[in-house]
Design goal:
It is built from 27 helices and 41 strands. By secondary structure, the protein is an alpha+beta fold. The strands form 11 sheets. Strands 24-39-40-41-35-34-31-32-33 form a 9-stranded mixed sheet, sandwiched between helices. Helix 17 packs across helix 18, helix 18 crosses helix 25 and helix 21 packs parallel to helix 23. The longest helix is centred in the C-terminal third of the chain and has 18 residues. It is globular. The N and C termini lie far apart (70 Å).
């Protein structure tokens, strides 16, 4: 062994360096003229590292006999000390540590870190024999049923063990930690019966009785390797560069669901169970009443071989043996689930048991006899498809009805939730035809992939054709696209020539020769086909936003009245086995054949006040709405409007009369003087209609569209000859409803010139003279842009449980109300486009003004990464408001900061409650601590007592709108007011449902705060995650309902409470800013907008290190950080032209910080 002296063998290396050999480095394969401690390269992965002292493999620095000194206390390496660690900056373990950084630790220090982060449940898995609640043991199946090349599935032993796959140890620890956090949620209180609970309604749930005596066994399916060479059939063209990639990616490719289903069907046909009482998802799981096969349940992890055959590939190929097997995972714990819904005992395995029961409920739907489409937990019977669908003009998309179903734990019983759904699917037509309908000319590959990447197609000339997945579009047609034919001495051939020679029986035409060339292989393994010979596979759901006309069709088709919904659910009961003689009983389940009946409580609307005069009158509310035209003023006037500036993008004159009508209405509401100047601008200098930039399609930008719009708007704005700081808002007249143009107007107004904008189409503008409601609503929006307040709630009538007189909404006195949300790039773009997070918060007690903060963060990261920093901004804004408003001046610092926080978190699924609690709750409190430090620095007039602290009490709720619970009137049809007609009404506003269909343990409720004139009303679902304010559930229901009446842009109660709705609107605005990036159309090779290279940074700027040590979201690696920072600095999206501040995080102009510009 080599001897060394000094830190990390520096002495020995000094001698070698002097001899001209350079310094040896454990990071690099070759010597270099500087010490290892000066080397900027990262350490190799922990399993490939050399010792920092002797540079040998097999041990690490702390175990080296030739070491001199101690290793770094953080990472374990020996070439530096703790305070100079390049892996973990700052001399302490950060709040978030990425997997890439963790893997640079030495092996033993990596294990030490993971052990410290893991919960006791990870360190000490519960054994099957010691479980206190499980009567049976269920082991989690692998995420993918496909095995490794050997055909054997490797599973972690032990009932409580984690299945660790590609996500790694740290991700598993995070999820376990979130599960532990979820257990700390407030428990359901016994709901006190209310006198108003006299009405009976129905819900789209069926009660399921559980018989725990029935033994249900669960198995995982492992599809083995065929050991057959994975060559393509003779009709495919693979480029030479793709051969190596093909070999490397062979074992990484995921089986297509059609292939997986085909193989599992073959497995079960050739290895039929001896009974019919089993169900499978044809993906990874089989559920059986008793053993699936004889002697297959002798022990957990018992493997039963189920070899079967599949057809080979190529002509004259023989059948191939597939060495598959099923593995016994354990018995499904029906008794534990029954105890859970009846609130007899805690049960941690609910989701796993429910997944198994969902497979049972889909026994018929997953069966071979079902005709239609299956997408996740939705199914679309072919009988629901319009019989005339194929006869109409071929559309891009087909709008179809279907159903959602899911087993859920209810308050007292197991429930089956069934709901109607409407979805859009790609038309199963020729691909070239589809492309011509979508684009007038051939798009570039980025635009093409934004629409069609991962869409499945078949090749028309090969029957039966395998299903291919679209990867991209070639730059040339089939005649111009060439490849080297391996079967013909690597001769270069065009795709068209090859196919014409292969399929001689087909009459090839110029249409095929000039067709677009489609890559159905992968990047680096291109397989080319002409678009004219590809057909889109049916039942592929569209997950992206569609053009306006298709969106309108979908909304219209989905507008089903309550009675229509109930009738549709009755029609589908047979598919779900909800019949008198059902397969459910065989599995220990007995479903009711009637919808659940409930008794809701009804909350009355609050009183709305539009002025503070002595003769103040409250607004008349009818069905959750009020007529703003009846009001003569708003509650509070904002900044003065000294001129009405209008940007006219219609290219037409003659708007003055309509604009004068708007000004007259503004004067009526005291928003402006009737005689102020109206300044109307025409785009361009020519009197001819202006040329508005046009995007390449209705919903996808071309790369230069934003810059063209910016130049046009700037030129138009200059013609106003106005100082931007003197313009309180701008009225923008659009030629028509145009989403891309609207996005550009909002981005330019918010980020470029810092002026709020109110947009109106030319058609709407023409109607203002005869529509008083339209005029009033325009003024409502203008008032919010002028920082005015339209109305307030008065007389909530809530007697708070804390005994303290609350604010008008019913919340505790001195409460900051907050809303938060996250919006994401589309699937496949998360590694190149960040997600966007935003929060809004009131700036004073009893305020309805919600100011915002926003950040970019790692793509598809579900929790808000820099919530701490944004909360700090909002608390400081509250404090600053007390300094600026003379009516709010108080003597003590305690009156200048909020005492309570009420946070409504939007955009969270029920599986993420623990994530929000673990990742966001402490950030909220840490943000308050940081803000308090700033307050102490500023508040000089008051000396703080030693040790004096401030921390507001927090109540945190999750708001969900995308759920499938629906509520119907008990009577099928009701008479109208005149009594001469029966109408299919939805429930009236103010209904609260907090029994039967809610979770048996969580504090949650459904609130239908609005009146729905279209379709069936969708209630908001509210779940309490944390409540330091000790609100009673009735209090939270009333407060939430009151907040739904405080919108600054609507004259009715909204469907979700305002803070959550505003956070959603802010995120919509952020999507306007980021639209080119979201569409995948930014070209970062251009100089313009190209950001600074941050690739050498290794820590995230989004959150500061904290003394808290937690298994949190991995900090962005250097690669991840570079693309986030790149977008933050890109003047085409987040950072506006001319903005040089390096500390400002929010993308909009600072002039809008005190304005609700986003509503």
């Amino acid at each position: 062994m080599k001897k060394s002296s000094g830190l990390g063998g520096a002495g020995d290396r000094d001698d070698k360096a002097k001899a001209g050999k350079g310094y040896e480095c454990a990071k690099c394969p070759e010597r270099h003229p500087y010490l290892q401690s000066k080397c900027e390269k990262p350490y190799p992965n922990f399993d490939k590292q050399k010792c920092d002292a002797c540079f040998e493999h097999g041990h690490e620095f702390q175990d080296c006999k030739g070491k001199n000194g101690n290793p770094c206390d953080l990472c374990g390496h020996g070439d530096h000390r703790k305070n100079k660690c390049s892996v973990v900056l700052g001399g302490r373990v950060p709040d978030n540590l990425s997997v890439n950084l963790l893997n640079q630790f030495t092996p033993k220090f990596r294990e030490k870190y993971l052990a410290a982060q893991a919960t006791p449940a990870i360190n000490n898995p519960t054994s099957p024999t010691s479980s206190s609640q499980d009567l049976a043991v269920i082991k989690s199946p692998p995420t993918s049923p496909r095995s490794s090349q050997s055909g054997l599935q490797s599973l972690v032993k032990g009932a409580g063990a984690l299945v660790l796959g590609e996500v790694g140890d740290l991700m598993a620890a995070r999820r376990r930690k979130w599960a532990e956090a979820e257990k700390k949620m407030p428990k359901r209180q016994n709901v006190q019966p209310q006198s108003s609970k006299t009405e009976i309604i129905k819900a789209n749930f069926f009660e399921i009785t559980i018989d725990p005596r029935v033994k249900l066994c669960k198995y995982s399916i492992t599809l083995g390797s065929t050991n057959e060479k994975d060559s393509d059939s003779s009709d495919t063209m693979t480029t030479k560069d793709g051969e190596k990639a093909q070999a490397e990616q062979k074992d990484k490719r995921k089986l297509k669901r059609e292939t997986k289903r085909f193989l599992i069907e073959g497995l079960l046909k050739e290895n039929p169970p001896p009974h019919k009482y089993w169900a499978t998802d044809y993906d990874s799981i089989i559920v059986s009443k008793g053993p699936l096969y004889e002697k297959s349940t002798l022990s957990i992890d018992q493997v039963t071989q189920t070899h079967h055959y599949r057809t080979g590939r190529g002509k004259d190929s023989k059948k191939v043996i597939v060495e598959s097997h099923v593995t016994y995972l354990g018995e499904i714990n029906l008794q534990g689930l029954k105890n859970h819904v009846e609130k007899r005992a805690e049960f941690d395995n609910t989701s796993d048991v429910l997944k198994s029961l969902n497979i049972i409920s889909w026994k018929t739907i997953n069966g071979e006899g079902f005709q239609g489409g299956r997408i996740g937990n939705r199914f679309y019977p072919l009988s629901m498809v319009d019989s005339n669908e194929a006869k109409r003009e071929t559309p891009l998309y087909r709008i179809r009805d279907g159903f959602f179903s899911s087993m859920r734990p209810g308050d007292g019983s197991l429930l089956l939730n069934v709901n109607t759904v409407t979805s859009a699917f790609f038309s199963p037509i020729n691909l070239q035809t589809w492309m011509k309908k979508q684009w007038s000319a051939q798009p570039d590959n980025k635009v093409f992939r934004s629409k069609l990447k991962n869409v499945r197609v078949t090749f028309d000339l090969h029957y039966p054709s395998r299903i291919w997945t679209i990867c991209g579009l070639g730059p040339r047609d089939t005649l111009g696209t060439t490849f080297e034919d391996k079967k013909d001495d690597n001769k270069k051939k065009s795709v068209f020539t090859y196919l014409r020679n292969t399929y001689r029986e087909y009459q090839w035409t110029d249409k095929d020769q000039n067709a677009c060339c489609i890559n159905v292989g992968s990047q680096g393994r291109e397989i080319w086909y002409p678009a004219t010979q590809l057909t889109i596979v049916d039942w592929q759901i569209v997950r992206e936003k569609m053009q306006d006309d298709y969106s309108a069709q979908m909304l219209k088709k989905g507008e089903k009245r309550p009675q229509q919904n109930k009738n549709s659910i009755r029609d589908v009961m047979g598919h779900l086995g909800l019949e008198a003689t059902s397969f459910y009983q065989s599995f220990g389940l007995k479903p009711s054949l009637n919808l659940v009946e409930l008794s809701p409580s009804t909350l009355g609307p609050p009183k709305l006040l539009f002025n503070d005069t002595k003769d103040q009158k409250t607004a008349t509310i009818n069905n959750g709405a009020w007529n703003l035209a009846e009001q003569t003023s708003f509650l509070k006037r904002g900044v003065a409007c000294t001129s009405l500036n209008v940007i006219n993008l219609t290219g037409k004159a003659g708007l003055e009369d309509s604009i004068n009508i708007i000004l007259k209405e503004m004067a009526r509401y005291s928003l402006a003087d009737r005689n102020i100047a109206i300044i109307v601008s025409q785009p361009g200098v020519s009197p001819s209609p202006p040329h508005l930039p046009k995007p390449s399609s209705q919903d996808v930008f071309n790369q230069g569209y934003r810059e063209e719009c910016r130049k046009l708007f700037n030129k138009t704005f200059l013609s106003l000859n106005q100082d931007p700081s003197k313009i309180p808002f701008m009225l923008v007249v659009l030629p028509k409803r145009d989403i891309p143009l609207y996005s550009e107007i909002k981005r330019w107004g918010d980020c470029e010139v810092g002026i709020p904008t109110v947009c109106i189409t030319n058609d709407k503008l023409k109607k203002v003279g005869g529509d008083a409601t339209l005029r009033a609503n325009i003024c409502l929006k203008i008032n919010s842009k002028l920082k005015g307040v339209s109305h307030k709630i008065t007389g909530s009538g809530i007697a708070t449980s804390g005994g303290e007189r609350g604010k008008s909404s019913g919340a505790r006195k001195n409460t900051m109300i907050i809303g938060g949300d996250v919006t994401h790039p589309k699937e496949g773009h998360q590694n190149s486009c960040p997600s966007m997070a935003g929060i809004v918060a009131t700036d004073q007690d009893d305020s309805s003004c919600y100011l915002g903060s926003a950040r970019l963060q790692k793509g598809k990261e579900e929790h808000i990464v820099d919530l701490e920093g944004m909360i700090k901004e909002r608390v400081i804004a509250w404090y600053n408001r007390t300094k600026e408003d003379p009516t709010l001046k108080v003597a003590s610092w305690k009156g200048r900061v909020p005492t309570h926080l009420l946070f409504y978190r939007d955009g969270v699924s029920e599986s993420q409650y623990g994530m929000v609690l673990d990742e966001e709750k402490d950030q909220i409190l840490d943000g308050c601590r940081q803000a308090f430090e700033e307050v102490k620095k500023d508040f000089k007039n008051n000396k703080f007592k030693k040790g004096e602290k401030w921390m507001p009490k927090l109540t945190l709720l999750v708001v969900t709108k995308r759920h499938h619970a629906r509520f119907f009137p008990y009577k099928e049809l009701q008479k109208n007011e005149a009594g001469d007609k029966k109408i299919d009404f939805s429930l009236t506003s103010g209904k609260v449902i907090d029994t039967k269909v809610v979770d048996p343990t969580h504090r949650d409720f459904y609130l239908q705060s609005h009146h729905s004139g279209l379709g069936t009303a969708r209630s908001g679902h509210y779940v309490v995650l944390y409540d330091d304010n000790n609100y009673a559930l009735l209090e939270l229901q009333q407060i939430t309902n009151n907040l739904c009446y405080t919108s600054s842009r609507a004259t009715k109660a909204v469907s979700v409470c305002i803070p959550a709705r505003y956070a959603d609107l802010l995120c919509d605005r952020l999507r306007c800013y980021m639209k080119p990036a979201l569409d995948g159309l930014l070209n970062n090779d251009k100089d313009e907008g190209k950001p600074v290279d941050y690739s050498k940074q290794t820590t995230s700027p989004q959150r500061k290190s904290s003394t808290r040590l937690s298994v949190s979201a991995p900090a962005d690696t250097s690669e991840d950080l570079s693309y986030i920072k790149a977008h933050e600095e890109d003047i085409r999206v987040w950072k506006a032209h001319g903005k040089t501040s390096v500390t400002r995080k929010n993308p909009w102009s600072a002039a809008l910080d005190k304005c609700m510009f986003y509503v």
